[in-house]
Structures are given as C-alpha cells and as structure tokens.
Design goal:
This protein is mainly beta. It has a single domain, classed as Peptidase/esterase 'gauge' domain (Methylamine Dehydrogenase, Chain H, 7 Propeller). It is 0% helix and 48% strand. The chain contains no helices and 27 strands. The strands form seven sheets. The protein has a four-stranded antiparallel β-sheet, with no helix packed on it. It has a four-stranded antiparallel β-sheet with strand order 2-3-4-5, with no helix packed on it. Strands 6-7-8-9 form a four-stranded antiparallel β-sheet, with no helix packed on it. It is globular. The two termini are 17 Å apart.
C-alpha cells in the first residue's frame, strides 16, 4: 500500500457534532441481531453482494450458540450449520476464522470441529465451501491466522507448536514449512509470490523484542530486516511487536503494532502505536499512519486494517478509534452507525450514547466498500442499560480527502 491509511474515529453514536450531518462519513448497519448478547467476530467478503460471517450468542451459564450468516444478494441471513460446526457435536467456533478468494472457495478454520465419533470430535480442522456445500478438511493443526489465494493455494500459521511453522494447501494435501526463528501471528498476501507474516523476535533477556517480518516469494520464506525501536535508556519490559499486516502489492504493504514499556519495574505499562511501510525494497517507519487527524487519539493496542480499494487504508484499534486516510488526501473521521434500540422498542436517551466495537474488517473485492463486524450497544460498565447486539456494517467513502 503507498497508500495512505484509514482510521475511523468512533464517537458516541448519535452524539457530538455529527448529529444531523448528512454529509458525515458514517458506518451503515446492514445486520443487527435480535439477541442483546451477541458478537459477530469474523467476516469474509467474496463479492459486492455475497459474504459469510460468524457470530456467537451467549446463553445462560456462558454456553454460547454459534451462528453462521450468509449474504447472497441483499440481506444477511442465518443458515443451518453443518454437523461438524455444531457445538453439540464438539465444535468451538468462537475463535474461528473466515477467509475466501471467491464465492466457491470459502474457508473456515476452527480450533475444534465436531464429529460423529470420539475419533473426530474436538479435533482442529477447516471447512471449505465450494459454492454448494461445506466439506471438512483435516488440517491436523490449529490455525493462528490464514490467507486464501485460490482453491489450491492456502497458507496458515500453526498455533499448535512452539516452532514457527506455516502450512500450505496445494489442493490435495498440507505441507509443512519451517519459518525463520521468530514469533509470527499474522498473515497477509497480495498474490502467490507475495505472502507476509509478522510478529516479533527476541532481542534480550525477559520479553525484550523487536518487530519481525518474514516473506514468501513463491519459493522460500526468508526474514526481512525491519526498523528497530527503543529508548535512549532501556526501560523494564520493553518490547516491540507487529500485530497486523496488510499486503496490497509487491511494492506496497503496511504493518502495524505497538511499542510497550514501563518507566520502572512494576510501573504502569505504556503503549505507543507504530506503523511500517514496505515499498518493494525495504521496510520504513511510517509514524504518519498512526497520527490521528483533528486532535483525535491515536490508535492503541491491537489494530485492524483494510484497504479501501483506491490506495487508502482503514484502521480500527481495540479502543474503537477509527479514521479514513485516502491516498493523497487528508484523513477524516468516520462516525459510528445510528443508534439501535436496546431494552425497548425505541432508542432511549441513554441508549443514544452507544459504541460500535469492531472485531474484523474486510475490503469488498472490486468495490470501494468496507465491511466491519462486531457489536453495537452499551458496555457492561453502565449497568442495567448494557446490551450487545451483533452487528455487520458497511462503509463506502463519499469523498477522497
């Protein structure tokens, strides 16, 4: 991406200066759950009018109910889960991932799938949608992250072993690939010969670390040098790691992460966001990518990123702060969606101050549209008013800077 970055600054829904501003960039809610205790945690966009999403509805005693949603045409609708995806069969989909390259090549990776006997129930694996039905794929490993390029080209990072390992699906079988001796957790690819994995590498005693990036060029994985961060005087528990990677082209990729440290041992930990940009030859620090516009706070902790289809980026952090930075233009805020009713049929005055918590971001292929999934509602800290409706939202830039 020599793209600029996009972040959305999520403010209280229905509050602030954006009220009544028809020109304000804003998330539009396309699906909201009836349940008041649901989160949509994964989404895969396969075309302008088709996608898949996973949601979990909590129940009494913290037993969850997994929900598979499919959009085909207009609305998002729940579809029947195949046996291998059902909780009563031993499946656990709360941390499952959805990835796709086409309407007939959608993958779901789960740490535990169901089965009809003790030999299959509870084992990690994947499910693949071929456009007509779901097929089970016995991976033999838990996928930490995955990227789907084609029916015969899928990469997944292994969370089952302490060694850095990637697995590749060639259409018939999985093969193992040892990675350089670093810790990587996140994958992205712009094509079969441009696959990135990022994380961190140990540099000293304790948890001290620096960013790490490894690249697959179609033949082998290799460690690519990344800039280092640090204080003039080393601080306790100082570490730097990359927590998101977005590969747009062989000469355009973005990585995001954080620099954490304590001023003194046992003191509060400080978090500073970092960003790196790949230009085809080297990684460079890109602090402007995490410099928020208009006095809004910069992103903190985990960052989600998506391209906007025109060289820009969308970022969302764990605190719900976002913005859109179009390529070649000034960044601007994207407001939260309009508020939704909570415990009654209408939005109360208290419920007008809601928050949209984003858990996954996806650019819709062939469009300028972004899909975001998560929940909309009021956090538990606000007592009896709290609720969490699972939400799928879309955003299409109306301006370019």
């Amino acid at each position: 991406m020599t793209a600029a970055v996009l972040l959305l600054t999520v403010t209280g829904c229905g509050s602030g200066d954006s009220d009544g501003d028809e020109d304000a960039a804003r998330w539009r809610l396309d699906h909201v759950s009836e349940s008041l205790d649901t989160q949509v945690h994964a989404v895969a966009a396969v075309s302008a009018d088709e996608g898949w999403a996973l949601a979990t509805e909590k129940g009494a005693g913290d037993d969850g109910r997994d929900i598979l949603l499919h959009r085909e045409g207009g609305d998002w609708r729940p579809v029947r889960l195949p046996a291998a995806m059902r909780h009563e069969k031993g499946a656990e989909l709360a941390a499952a991932q959805l990835e796709a390259s086409a309407p007939d090549n959608v993958w779901l990776f789960a740490g535990s799938l169901g089965g009809d006997g003790s030999d299959t129930a509870g084992l990690p694996g994947a499910m693949r949608w071929d456009g007509r039905q779901w097929h089970r794929n016995a991976t033999g490993f838990i996928a930490r992250d995955a990227v789907v390029l084609a029916p015969d080209d899928v990469w997944a990072l292994d969370a089952s072993t302490p060694e850095a390992t990637a697995h590749h699906w060639d259409g018939e079988r999985w093969s193992d690939h040892r990675l350089p001796d670093v810790y990587v957790n996140w994958l992205s690819a712009s094509g079969p010969d441009d696959v990135w994995a990022v994380g961190n590498r140990k540099t000293g005693p304790g948890d001290r670390s620096q960013p790490a990036a490894v690249h697959f060029d179609g033949e082998k994985w290799r460690l690519v040098p990344t800039p280092e961060y640090g204080s003039a005087e080393p601080k306790p528990d100082e570490k730097v790691m990359l927590t998101e990677i977005l590969a747009l082209a062989p000469d355009d990729a973005w990585a995001f992460g954080q620099h954490t440290y304590a001023v003194k041992s046992g003191a509060e930990t400080h978090h500073t966001p970092i960003a790196l940009h790949w230009d085809g030859s080297r990684w460079r620090k890109a602090p402007e990518a995490v410099r928020a516009p208009g006095g809004n706070a910069a992103p903190a902790h985990s960052v989600l990123a998506a391209g906007d289809g025109a060289g820009g980026l969308v970022l969302n952090d764990a605190h719900g702060r976002e913005q859109h930075r179009p390529a070649g233009g000034e960044p601007y805020a994207v407001e939260e969606p309009e508020p939704v009713p909570g415990h009654s049929d209408e939005v109360t005055e208290e419920e007008r101050d809601q928050q949209f918590d984003v858990l996954d971001l996806e650019h819709v292929p062939g469009t300028r549209e972004i899909w975001a999934v998560g929940s909309v509602g009021i956090p538990p800290l606000r007592g009896d008013a709290a609720f969490s409706r699972g939400a799928i939202a879309s955003y299409s830039p109306a301006k370019d800077g």
